[in-house]
Write a structure and sequence with these properties.
Shape: globular
Keywords: Membrane, Transmembrane, Transmembrane helix, Transport
Largest sheet: 2 strands, antiparallel
Family: Belongs to the nucleobase:cation symporter-2 (NCS2) (TC 2.A.40) family.
Strand content: under 5%
Membrane topology: Multi-pass membrane protein
Pfam family, one: Xan_ur_permease
Structural class: mainly alpha
Number of domains: 2
Number of helices: 20
Subcellular location: Membrane
């Protein structure tokens, strides 16, 4: 008799984490059919958590490339559409190879933004999509061979990466709560009041609520925060009034150029971001399913990501990545039903073709988003710690985690500490806690757990 170990692991995780309310039990099963009244609020919750992260990179890149207003709108639209398609690929793998079949929300990758700004400002937006095309193919190839190199990414490495992701997101949440970096009202009492009220609602429902009220705590908190912000005059409906009702996405609108330096820079970032994605997918299965992801799932996840980035380069869609806030939502609620994120994906695709819909989502104040997601980011960090502990706290593992975080976080929190190096070095290694931490964790694990450990065992045997 053939036993599906992956399915058994899923069911075990579901049984362990499922709330007592039997009416919602289908939400904790990947393939179960669920009602629309369960589907809609949880799907919209994922959209609300992701929307700012999806549209913001496009706006930043458009400014760096000095695009017109219409082209900026086009970038935002393609970001929404590609986020939806990328998520659907992860939920329903193409040819059973491109995609993970895991509940993962995809969207514009913040990890690539610093490099995209440099490329866009120096070489133009066509060069961004040329580099993305090559980088996407490299990542796709990496995913194909992932099972042969997965030894480089054991739980001690992925746990360290997940923890660094959580730590890197804390300042993002706090800046959102304060009103968004660069805002004229940044740090105001008004912003903090809205953020704190939003957080209190989320916290109360999450720890004291039941059923859908508990599962949709983020969405409900954001609705309450949005209404409060509306009464305080913090919501700007200008984008809604100026947005059109329908917009077709023309292929090759921005062109494609192949320049060596942009290709090298973006490919390096893509590879590091792929390791970060492995950490995010691992966090999802560990936190919501109580198991490690399989080789096939991780291979499909990376191949799916490479595929959508390659296709996106032809349509003006910026590189996609995993979304930490949505990973946190899945972990916190344990809701892994594929139809929840299917609803979210379809909503994003429709919003991409109907700018009026997308513009409504962009009116959500940063303070509301920050108040709703800070607990989500905390969950990600704690999932990283949990993964590290599951690997064992041997002296070698402690060294791997401690040294990787010390260097990665230390450099990121020390502006201009790499000022003596070429500008690209600071951009790649000095702007994110995750990148340097990931590289060091892989190298230190290779040295201490793969090379040194066998030698030690051989010496003991002798």
């Amino acid at each position: 008799m053939r036993v599906n170990l992956s399915q058994s692991a899923d069911e075990a995780g579901v049984a362990k984490t499922m709330p007592k309310d039997k009416k919602t039990k289908g939400l904790f099963n990947y393939d179960a059919k669920v009602s629309f009244k369960e589907l809609a609020p949880l799907g919209l919750q994922h959209v609300a958590a992701a929307i700012a992260g999806i549209v913001t990179p496009g706006i930043m890149v458009a400014k760096a490339c000095k695009l017109s207003g219409s082209d900026t709108t086009l970038i935002i639209q393609t970001s929404l559409i590609m986020a939806g398609i990328a998520t659907l690929i992860q939920l329903f793998p193409i040819f059973r190879r491109f995609g993970s079949r895991l509940p993962m929300m995809m969207g514009a990758s913040f990890a690539t933004v610093p490099i995209l700004l440099i490329i866009g400002g120096s070489y133009g937006i066509g060069s961004i999509f040329g580099a993305q095309l090559i980088g996407g193919l490299v990542v796709l190839t990496m995913g194909f061979f992932l099972k042969y190199i997965r030894i480089l990414f054991p739980p001690i490495v992925t746990g360290t990466v997940i923890l660094s992701i959580g730590l890197s997101l804390f300042p993002v949440a706090v800046k959102y709560m304060a009103g968004g970096a660069g805002s004229a009202t940044f740090g105001s009492v008004q912003n903090w009041s809205v953020a704190i009220v939003t957080f209190i609602v989320v916290f109360t429902l999450n720890y004291f609520g039941k059923g859908l009220f508990k599962l949709a705590s983020i969405l409900i908190g954001m609705i309450v925060g949005y209404i409060l912000a509306l009464t305080m005059g913090m919501v700007n409906f200008g984008p809604v009034q100026s947005a059109s009702f329908m917009q077709v996405i023309p292929p090759m609108h921005f062109g494609i150029r192949f320049d060596l330096i942009p290709i090298l820079l973006l490919t390096i970032i893509f590879l590091v971001d792929a390791v970060q994605s492995i950490g995010q997918f691992t966090a999802t299965t560990m936190g919501a399913m109580d198991r490690q992801p399989t080789d096939r799932e991780l291979s499909g996840a990376i191949m799916g990501k490479g595929l959508i980035n390659t296709l996106g380069s032809f349509f003006g869609g910026l590189a996609v990545g995993t979304f930490g806030q949505n990973v946190g939502l899945v972990i916190e609620t344990k809701v892994i039903n594929k139809y929840i994120l299917t609803f979210s994906s379809i909503f994003l695709v429709v919003a991409g073709f109907v700018p009026k819909v997308a513009s409504i989502l962009t009116t959500i104040p940063y303070a509301v988003i920050g108040g709703a997601t800070i607990s989500v980011f905390a969950t990600i960090a704690m999932t990283g710690i949990r993964t590290i502990v599951s690997a064992g706290l041997s002296s070698l593992n402690v060294g791997i985690v401690g040294l990787s975080l010390a260097a990665g976080v230390g450099v990121a929190l020390s502006p201009n500490c790499l000022a003596g190096f070429p500008a690209w070095v600071n951009t790649v290694f000095g702007t994110s806690e995750v990148i340097l931490t990931t590289i060091l964790a892989v190298i230190l694990n290779l040295v201490l757990n793969i090379i040194k450990k066998p030698e030690k065992a051989q010496a003991t045997k002798g």
